[in-house]
Amino acid sequence: RDYFYQVFLELSEYFYKKYQIPENEFIKTSVDILNKRKSRYPKLFNEILELLNIPENEVKFCVDVFSSGKFPIVPFDGVYDVLDCLKNKNYFLGIITDGDYMRQRGKLKSLEIEHYFDTVVYTDILQSPKPSPTPYQYIISKFSINPKLSYYVGDDPDVDFKGAKSVGLNTIRVLYGEFINKKKNKYIDYEIKDIKEIINIT
After folding, report:
1. What does the pLDDT read at residue 199?
2. In the sheet that 151-154 helps form, which strands lie side by side, from edge to edge?
3. What is the spatial distance between Cα 65 and Cα 30, in angstroms, rounded to a whole number?
C-alpha cells in the first residue's frame, strides 16, 4: 500500500495547485476508496476524481504518475532470496498480473524484479483477467510447460487460483497483505505464512 500512498501524496499536491482541492481531503478520499475497493480496482482514479469533482480527463495524469516507477516498492521479506534460489535451480519463472497495463508495468519497474522472470503476462493486454484460465493456458502453451510440475503462487482466493487450477497447475497461497483474512477455497493446494516455504514445496 505504500506505493499508493506515495502516488496519492504527489497527486494531492498537483490537484491543490490546479483546482485548490485541499491536500488532506484528496488523500483521505483516495485512501477511503482504496480501502473499500482494494488495490486491483481498475476504476480507482476515476472514482476519486468523480467524488472530488475533478475533470475526468485528469485520469491520464493520475495513471502516468502511478506508472512512472519513480516511487520505490519494497517487496515482502524473503522475496529476493526465493527468486535467487529458484533461478539458481534453473526454474522457469513467470508473472501473471491483472489491472491496467501501465499501472502494473510501473509497479514491476519499481520492484526491480523483472530480470528474474522469463515472461510477464499482462491480462489487460490479453483482455482476459483472472480468474479466467486464459492467461495461465497462454503461458503453458507458449512455453510448453507441464502444469503438473508447475506452481502458481498468489494471495487473493477470489481471483488467483480458480483459473490456475482449471489448467492443472499446483497452487500456493501466500498469507500476506490485504487478502490475508479471506477464506481458503478448494482451488488452493498449499497455504504458507512465510514465502521462503515455497522452496521446500517446489
Report:
1. 95
2. 151-154, 170-174, 190-192
3. 14
Burial (CB < 10 A; 0-12, 13-18, 19+), residue 164, is buried
Q: Report which of 34, 36, 156, 174 is spatially closest to residue 98, judged by C-alpha positions.
A: 156
Question: Is residue 27 within 8 Å of residue 53, measured between CB atoms?
Answer: no
Task: Give dist(CA 169, CA 151) in Å, integer.
Answer: 6
Task: Check if the beta carbon of residue 52 is closer than 8 Å to that of residue 24.
Answer: no
CB 187 within 8 A of CB 165: yes
The pTM for the full model equals: 0.81
Query: What is the Cα–Cα distance from 193 to 8, expressed in whole angstroms?
Result: 30
Burial label for 172, CB within 10 Å (0-12, 13-18, 19+), is: buried
pLDDT tens digits, 130-169? 999 999 999 999 999 999 999 999 999 999 999 999 999 9
Tell me 197's DSSP state.
G
